[in-house]
Specification:
Helix content is 35%, strand content 29%.
Length: 202
């Protein structure tokens, strides 16, 4: 009997650990994923440049697109189907607590080159690799110009969600040197957090 109880308890713990967390509001979910101990956010400071990589769960994109707070289950499910096949990462970079274009370029030529790099060339600088170092092709990236109104340069990178890649222990997200003398910056992403991403209670 004691062995049965022990095994049952272990099964309960395993199932509990596999279940995704649910939150009532997007703000609560954002606070949760911004806490590094939960595996969705990582930060590094290299040569005065602050890098933050944040995984953006599917339900945050769903919530962003919902037309009303009283959306039907069908609307929510349709949007989940739309977004669920991709992984979304927000990459933020700043120097002296300002966006890169405000502080990094030394002259107009460097400014123009960095604008071009950020707007059109980040697919050549940012990479996602499997544990076996296979490249995961970038599906899209979005760079909104903030014109000095933000404290960081932030962009979203979108990759296909392929189950065979998530069955590995981790993925590697890398940023090549953008002329900031940082060298290559690497983040190791635990795939368990991606497979059991938190959700919203719509």
């Amino acid at each position: 009997m004691r062995n049965f109880i022990s095994v049952s308890f272990m099964v309960f713990l395993f199932v509990s650990c596999q279940q995704s967390k649910h939150f009532k509001t997007a703000d609560e979910l954002i606070v949760y994923i911004q806490d590094e101990q939960h595996g969705y956010s990582q930060q590094k400071m290299i040569n005065g440049v602050a890098y933050t990589l944040l995984y953006r769960p599917t339900d945050l994109l769903v919530n962003q697109e919902l037309s009303s707070a009283s959306a039907s289950e069908a609307e929510v499910e349709a949007l989940r189907q739309k977004y669920k096949n991709y992984l979304y990462f927000n990459l933020s970079m700043s120097k002296h607590n300002q966006e890169l274009l405000s502080v990094a370029p030394k002259n107009q030529n460097e400014f123009g080159a960095m604008v071009n790099q950020l707007a059109f060339g980040m697919n050549e600088k940012v990479h996602l690799f499997t544990q076996q170092k296979d490249t995961i092709a970038l599906a899209d990236y979005i760079y909104p110009r903030m014109y000095g109104m933000s404290r960081a340069t932030t962009m979203m990178f979108v990759y296909p969600r392929q189950h065979e890649n998530l069955d590995q222990d981790y993925l590697n997200f890398t940023i090549e040197d953008l002329g900031l003398y940082t060298g290559e910056v690497k983040f190791k992403i635990n795939t368990k957090s991606l497979k059991n991403e938190p959700q919203l209670k719509f």
